[in-house]
């Protein structure tokens, strides 16, 4: 006989009165309603899946073991109990789903089993964490407490996954497997976001109440950017460049009503594609009833610049319209609301890195997956799309394709070069049906040409330094931080010399760019900059002369975009040279070798023909590298078996293979922040962590080990800090060559 004792989902801290606890049935219904609504947005056929996931996700909490634990714990949320292993309440739903007479039960089982600890691998050789192992795991009895109606719910009969077409140029089953795995991850996202929000509304109602409720809709954002661009046009002086920018804007407006799908916007640097692409995206989203826009950018240096522009455009629409989500977000711009929005991207306009965006699409952890269902039905702008890593090309292009074909997205491939990702006879994984927003982009490239690239062969450092010293305003971009530092040190002593690299913390780089380099360029004052490639991707500077060490043609094009950007001179000069050192092995060397190969056969290295030839070498003829990290192997080839290794997929799909270690440096305000960290008895709160991030540098493990060996690092609450200020140069940032264990007296006095 079934008992009718009450069952609870959550207790309250120090609250013995169970009448105030959350009934389990109420929590299930709230999660079911939310997850069904999230998935219905994507496809009406997914709503029943969301309802079922919500109703079954906590079915294991009906066990006496869990209810007794909840009573004895007497405090806070027990979401942590799943991870800590105290009570397993998520395996029950997985076993129930798998036991139903439907092959789709396994898909549901992944999602339910992982709704706290993350999507599991199908099979784990050691331990019990694999779904295969958990389906056979003995768990606390829950069935005697569950209503027959809840246990008897049937799985939906089908899932709305589009079947691969007969014309596919590579394995249909592999594509189908990818689609089923991708859909599983999206359904998982809807469940965990619904679960977090429902739990928060009960456990932390004061936080739930302040979650942003943005009143501005996409049409409001579209009108705001139209007005902004009208003001810019009214204030701009007539020039050939501004005329072209107006034409680009008009082409984006004209294309906005075209059907959703894949678009390319190929505009040379300086053509205004940052605002024009957003104008297209907002108009397109408003016209087709899409939910918002995501802007993916390759480097944080560009995000800081672009997000500042976006905030200026939409400031009048109130807080919460623009969400800037990346590691170097300025803490002074962060609010409680933006922090909550960053958890699940509940904002009309999200500005993030390609790294954050794409790694989330292949993630397995709840924290990274929460946002996925909100990426559906949006316009996604991929800026500098040619920078996508070759070693992850197959899964990345399949993800773009899935977003468009199965999840209602429009994707805009933005680049200053010719399309690199379109299907070709020898590029079978390429994207089909890409529509050019500007059909005559080749003519546009010619009209916007403001530079001449001159290959000048090999230059030793002495010759290079002499040529840099001879210029009034010049930018030199090299491939490695040590080379940049060496060249800078060999320049003739002058307060007009500047250095930029990731050995400088973000606050330091921004100080040099905004406070010194840009004012000098505007005033025509002497300004000589030695930089790594961080400056060439969207950093808005304008030099009359640029030297670029050997690199890929895509990087050369970006470097040229820092030269005569505003067309002040009749022609800018870009010198393409081979330095004393070859680039380091890996992507940089491969790109440079391909660039040199193209330079042997083309006089005009910025021409569309040279770009096409380069990408034929760099992307299209690298078939053995398209899935070098073996992400597709972890997905599998048989969609019916659904033996997905979700954790392996997440581990393998990383833009940066080696995990960086973070060092906090005492540059200006960083010194005070580190002191606050060291003097506190408690770990830093979120505000201090975010402020510290602006004064951090990412190091490889062996570099951090070198600093530890020199006694130059102290850890406070797990945060590694630089304790020898002489190792952080006010011009070049961190200098590892000086980390020899010898500490000058000035450091001891700090």
UniProtKB/TrEMBL annotation:
Pfam family of the protein (one): DEAD
Record CDD domains: Cas3''_I, DEXHc_cas3
Keyword entries, A-Z: Antiviral defense, ATP-binding, Helicase, Hydrolase, Metal-binding, Nuclease, Nucleotide-binding
Helicase ATP-binding domain span: 254-436
This protein's record includes keyword Hydrolase: yes
Alphabetical list of InterPro entries matching this protein: Cas3-like_dom (IPR054712), CRISPR-assoc_Cas3_HD (IPR006483), CRISPR-assoc_Cas3_HD_sf (IPR038257), DEAD/DEAH_box_helicase_dom (IPR011545), Helicase_ATP-bd (IPR014001), Helicase_Cas3_CRISPR-ass_core (IPR006474), P-loop_NTPase (IPR027417)
Stretches assigned to the HD Cas3-type domain: 17-197
PROSITE patterns: HD_CAS3 (PS51643), HELICASE_ATP_BIND_1 (PS51192)
Family indicated by similarity: In the N-terminal section; belongs to the CRISPR-associated nuclease Cas3-HD family. In the central section; belongs to the CRISPR-associated helicase Cas3 family.
Name assigned to this protein: Helicase Cas3
